[in-house]
Write a structure and sequence with these properties.
Layout: H1 3-20, H2 24-31, H3 35-42, H4 50-59, H5 64-67
Length: about 70
């Protein structure tokens, strides 16, 4: 995934966390993704797999289309 797209996704996750009043620890529990991995995703330091994108969408109770609407 290119860096610009990773940054957009990172910003989307941060935005949704704030809207839902989730900490990274909360999101880690809801998504099943390690807190350290979430930190790397939110800083666009790591690429992200499609399965993790799907886990995050489910954690926010969104469809993939809604989650990726950025």
């Amino acid at each position: 995934m290119n860096k610009q797209l990773l940054r957009k996704l990172a910003n989307r996750i941060k935005e949704l966390r704030k809207i839902n009043k989730y900490t990274q620890d909360d999101l880690s529990v809801y998504s099943g993704i390690a807190r350290s991995t979430l930190g790397n995703i939110e800083t666009a330091s790591n690429d992200i797999s499609f399965s993790k994108v799907n886990q995050l969408a489910k954690a926010f109770n969104l469809s993939l289309a809604e989650f990726l609407n950025f």
